[in-house]
Design brief:
Elements: E1 2-7, E2 22-23, E3 26-27, H1 28-39, E4 44-48, H2 52-60, H3 80-93, E5 100-104, H4 113-122, E6 130-136, E7 145-148, E8 152-155, E9 172-181, H5 183-188, E10 197-201, H6 213-227
Parallel strand pairs: 1-4, 1-5, 6-10
Antiparallel strand pairs: 2-3, 5-9, 6-9, 7-8
Helix pairs in contact: 1-4
């Protein structure tokens, strides 16, 4: 069976109650649940949380909350892998025969069902352990600079100072939306960013990290523009 696991803890510091804060009229987590439901490929959609209010809202929008996430993996230091491993162990305790697991972040209002299905398609290759969303950097990372009050400005890679932009290799970064994986890869904590993984490339206009209030405002503005199309 295929299971979606949506981590959603209640202790967000920079944007309080971020996972259920209203975003264009709906709790932020509702967009992730909706995309998972619309994909139509999951046998179960589970939200992993320690927060009762988040749990109730998740159930309202069609997800299951069959367990309470332990406090030791619900703080600022808990990793996504630990949360997914806990959820998989719970599934194992129910004798569910998992063949693929998809971690979907609760802060992904631009996620689409089509993107999820593209990731699942990548998993059809036997040697692929993970498939995740990614997008390009808007500026060549080889031209990145460091700005310091003591040291002034310096390039991280001065050897590329005179290289034309079109001659530099394009770089990508994690889009922070979803991570398909084989259950054993998650269980063993295999690295996601490795040769055994594949990336589903998204346009930059469909990606916005939401960690700060500025991020939130950017996401709302971008979402407004996309809704008008």
């Amino acid at each position: 069976m295929k299971v979606a696991i949506i981590p959603a803890r209640g202790g967000s510091k920079r944007i309080p109650r971020k996972n259920i804060k209203l975003f264009h009229g709906k709790p932020l987590i509702a967009y992730s649940i909706d995309a998972a439901r619309q994909a139509g490929c999951f046998d179960r959609i589970i939200v992993s949380t320690e927060d009762a209010e988040i749990g109730e809202i998740a159930k309202k929008y069609g997800a299951e909350v069959p367990f309470v996430r332990p406090g030791e993996i619900a703080d600022d230091h808990a990793t996504t892998i630990e949360v997914i491993q806990h959820a998989i162990n719970w599934c194992d305790s129910q004798n569910w025969e998992l063949d693929a697991v998809c971690c979907i972040y609760a802060t992904a209002p631009f996620l689409t069902a089509g993107n999820i299905l593209s990731g699942l398609q990548c998993m059809e290759v036997p040697d692929v352990q993970y498939a995740f969303s990614a997008t390009t950097f808007a500026f060549p990372i080889q031209r990145a600079i460091s700005v310091s009050g003591k040291e002034g400005v310096r390039m991280f890679h001065p050897e590329f100072a005179l290289t034309r932009s079109q001659d530099l290799e394009e770089a990508y970064h994690d889009a922070g939306q979803f991570y398909w994986g084989r259950p054993d890869a998650f269980r063993l904590g295999e690295p996601i960013f490795a040769e055994h993984s594949r990336a589903v490339i998204l346009p930059r206009k469909q990606v916005q990290d939401i960690d700060t209030q500025e991020d939130w405002e950017m996401a709302e503005a971008l979402f407004s523009v996309m809704m008008q199309k």
